[in-house]
Amino acid sequence: MKSAYLYVRVSTDEQMRKGYSLPEQEERLLKYCELNQRNLQRRFFSKGL
């Protein structure tokens, strides 16, 4: 199984309002890992606001 490292980032308030919030991005990435059999190693978050 391949490893995965998640990097979740939001740069602007507009991104937050348009469905790209940190939790929404994380959820999508976790689903991707599950569907593609990736072994999650670590998560990184950056709130560039």
UniProtKB/TrEMBL annotation:
Record GO terms (molecular function): DNA binding; DNA strand exchange activity
Q: Which UniProt keyword terms apply here?
A: DNA integration, DNA recombination, DNA-binding
PROSITE patterns given in the database record = RECOMBINASES_1 (PS00397)
Source superkingdom: Bacteria
Task: Name the residues annotated as catalytic in the UniProt entry.
Answer: 11
The UniProt record lists the Resolvase/invertase-type recombinase catalytic domain at 4-40
Sorted alphabetically, the Gene Ontology BP terms of this entry are: DNA integration
* SUPFAM superfamilies xrefs: Resolvase-like
Give one Pfam family: Resolvase
Q: What is this protein called?
A: Resolvase/invertase-type recombinase catalytic domain-containing protein
